[in-house]
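Task: sequence design from structure.
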């Protein structure tokens, strides 16, 4: 009898085992099905499957593995965030109206993964329209955190991160507009890469709604991999990178400027008066800095990019809310826009920014574009002196479920003080507003046994540098841990 497959091994290790024929793609798939059957009833991460189609894909992969024609990701069993169209699978985006929607065409990133040999198991849960920081919706219910079912796994790629954390999938495909990869990766203890804007096509992703898609990637929105090791991200990213035409070879990815912590120049930004951070999260960021310093890096906690956090956030938030509002029903959008006169220019409350962003005009869009260009130049100058910036992925660790109907009435507990729920956007804004790559990498556990991570921001186009620094931390014993629910 074959030895059990370690489903929480990295995708890189699983691929090596497949190529060595230690087990087959069909074996891996059936083991993944068994894991889903055992864990998903209590976690509700996987919300759609076609097991017959998956078994046919696994059989075809086994033929290629046997005859020496294996593709880069051949036989790896994966799940896909329900924000992405997958041909033949329900693709709802968390909206009840789309629950039975069956696309005829894959999203571009999905098509690239399929062409690279993955076996698609099914879809993972998201909030409605990927518009919340918890993963629940009327179509598919609530997803629970694998470290504590009373807590959310985060969102919007919450089901995706649960699937990866528990070994239900070898890796996942997520999307990120306001921290939607980084926050749940932090909350579930996995690696999540927000890619440089434009590196990976977001054609076929919700939002925007399917009937309002444009050929150009939506501003700020990116797609990226979620995995159990930094090496996995390096394996997957070249497959995903490239333009909308899935037949074109992936984009060239420059090698990381550093692969060793020695001489690595690190700036550390663990907390800020504008964006308060819970002490345990800030400590995890500093711990990551200490690990890198011990390995030879030069770590500086006094330096900052020459930008104001409030300016970076306002520019990002206005554009983010405009992107989200574009896909909202006209009546809902109009109701939000109608609130704009109630808020003066310079009001940085989340309600004000949402209303102003929803009413984005061509002149405001042009102004935002000029301000973003200034921010990008400030970041570029900063990265002439420093390789990466370490900062929090989010202000808190995983939060208890809170599905209050008014998102602005929800609160976060930061060091015993209530903060607005939409503060989740603050630390996400730094990289997203400037189109920079950012990796959320696991560091350790809180006193309550919940995962803690660090956000690693790298220069534009240097996604592999963020991955390389994640790998340095992994070698220093920071990294993925198996949640108790998935332990042998």
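Answer:
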């Amino acid at each position: 009898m074959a030895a059990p497959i370690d489903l929480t091994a990295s995708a890189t290790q699983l691929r090596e085992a497949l190529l060595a024929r230690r087990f087959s793609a069909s074996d891996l798939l059936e083991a993944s099905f068994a894991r889903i059957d055992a864990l998903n009833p209590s976690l509700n991460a996987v919300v759609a499957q076609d097991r017959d189609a998956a078994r046919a894909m696994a059989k075809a992969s086994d033929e290629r593995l046997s005859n020496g024609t294996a593709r880069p990701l051949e036989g790896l069993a994966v799940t896909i965030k329900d924000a992405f169209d997958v041909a033949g699978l329900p693709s709802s985006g968390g909206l009840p109206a789309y629950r039975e929607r069956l696309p005829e065409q894959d999203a571009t990133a999905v098509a690239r993964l399929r062409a690279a040999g993955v076996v698609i198991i099914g879809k993972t849960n998201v909030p409605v329209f990927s518009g919340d920081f918890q993963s629940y919706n009327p179509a598919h219910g609530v997803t629970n955190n694998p470290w504590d079912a009373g807590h959310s796994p985060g969102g919007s790629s919450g089901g995706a991160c649960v699937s990866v954390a528990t070994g239900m999938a070898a890796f996942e495909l997520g999307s990120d507009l306001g921290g939607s990869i980084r926050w749940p990766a932090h909350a579930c203890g996995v690696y999540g890469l927000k890619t440089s804007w434009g590196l990976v096509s977001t054609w076929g992703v919700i939002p925007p709604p399917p009937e309002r898609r444009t050929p150009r990637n939506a501003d700020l929105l990116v797609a990226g991999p979620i995995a159990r090791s930094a090496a996995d991200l390096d394996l997957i990213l070249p497959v995903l990178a490239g333009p909308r035409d899935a037949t074109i070879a992936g984009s060239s990815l420059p090698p990381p400027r550093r692969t060793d912590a020695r001489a690595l120049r690190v700036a550390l930004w663990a907390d800020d008066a504008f964006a308060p951070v819970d002490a345990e999260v800030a400590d995890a960021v500093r711990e990551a800095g200490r690990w890198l310093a011990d390995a030879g890096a030069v770590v500086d906690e006094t330096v900052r990019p020459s930008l104001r956090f409030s300016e970076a956030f306002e520019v990002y938030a206005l554009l983010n809310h405009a992107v989200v509002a574009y896909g909202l029903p006209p009546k809902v959008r109009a109701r939000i826009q109608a609130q704009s006169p109630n808020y003066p220019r310079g009001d940085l409350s989340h309600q004000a920014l949402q209303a102003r962003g929803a009413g984005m005009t061509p002149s405001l869009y042009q102004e935002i574009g000029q301000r973003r260009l200034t921010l990008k130049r400030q970041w570029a100058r900063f990265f002439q002196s420093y390789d990466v910036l370490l900062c929090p992925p989010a202000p808190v660790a995983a939060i208890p479920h809170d599905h209050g109907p008014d998102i602005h009435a929800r609160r976060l507990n930061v060091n015993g003080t209530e903060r607005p729920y939409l503060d989740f956007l603050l630390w996400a804004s730094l990289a997203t507003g400037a189109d920079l790559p950012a990796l959320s990498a696991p560091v350790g556990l809180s006193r309550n046994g919940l995962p803690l991570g660090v956000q690693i921001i790298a220069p534009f186009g240097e996604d592999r540098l963020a991955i390389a620094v994640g790998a340095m931390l992994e070698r220093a014993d920071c990294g993925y841990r198996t949640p108790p629910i998935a332990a042998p």
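The two ends are 18 Å apart (CA to CA).
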